[in-house]
Specification:
alpha/beta; two-stranded antiparallel ribbon; 8 helices; globular
């Protein structure tokens, strides 16, 4: 399976961390230069200014296009790929999970990471190695480690054509046609959450590929409407799977991350 790591050229410590980590796991990978704010023209930023439920920062737009570049690459091929942000720690079982996922051609997206928020997953799972694979109905955040299949990549790009762009993780987890799954125990943890889960703290910057800053700008009427519409749609979606799902935290096995 192809493995793509999104990395800004000047983030050398993160790149070296990932090179060391994936080499130790025996995985081949490709470093993909992340889109930077310098690559986002003012025209592009203005074009997408009203796409999401609030104004997107340029760093967020750049992060989105870093992921979108890989969605396009995957959609044009016939093989799934693992997409990683450059500050994620991987479990020692990741290679085995990837081998199993490569055999499954009926999937669209599989999330490998854990996040600090609860996820809504199916009550029933499939066994994959010594892990479980759950249908993922709702995920609030996170785009640091996921396996994307060509069919899923095409759906994400189609969703962009209809609705514009968003935060990378919001676009990933709010595409209603995308059939998503979750690995448990999680195989990936972003560095910023390692300490929370009792995993050895990795000596890299504890942020993802973008930095979030709270905007002081007052939200216009159109953003308030978009927010309300989004919440209403989410409410209807939740009703459709409430009987067959659980909302809970995803398990993490600390020993899985010990080398």
């Amino acid at each position: 399976m192809n493995i793509f790591i999104i990395n800004l050229p000047d983030a050398t410590e993160r790149r070296e961390f990932q090179q060391k980590q994936l080499t130790e796991l025996g995985l081949n990978f490709e470093i993909i230069n992340a889109t930077s704010i310098n690559d986002i023209s003012e025209d592009t930023y203005k074009k997408h200014y009203y796409d999401w439920q609030r104004p997107l920062q340029k760093t967020e737009v750049a992060c989105y296009f870093s992921h979108q570049k890989l969605w396009t690459k995957i959609a044009e091929g016939n093989q799934p790929a693992l997409i990683l942000e450059d500050d994620v720690a991987l479990s020692k079982y990741t290679p085995n999970i990837l081998k199993e996922l490569e055999k499954r051609t009926n999937l669209e997206m599989v999330n490998l990471e854990v996040f600090e928020k609860k996820k809504t997953i199916a009550k029933i799972s499939q066994t994959i190695g010594n892990h479980q694979l759950f249908c993922l109905y709702q995920d609030k955040a996170g785009a640091a480690a996921y396996v994307l299949y060509p069919k899923g990549a095409k759906k994400l790009l189609q969703h962009q054509q209809k609705h514009g762009i968003a935060l990378a993780d919001a676009h990933l987890h709010n595409c209603p046609s995308l059939q998503s799954y979750q690995i448990e125990p999680a195989c990936a943890v972003q560095s910023m959450f390692c300490q929370k889960y009792g995993i050895e703290q990795y000596d890299i910057v504890n942020t993802s590929c973008i930095e979030y800053k709270k905007s002081k700008e007052k939200r216009s009427f159109i953003f308030r409407v978009k927010r309300i519409v989004g919440q209403v749609k989410l409410g209807f979606r939740q009703l459709s799977f409430v009987a067959k799902s659980d909302k809970r935290y995803i398990e993490v096995r600390i020993d899985d991350f010990k080398r």
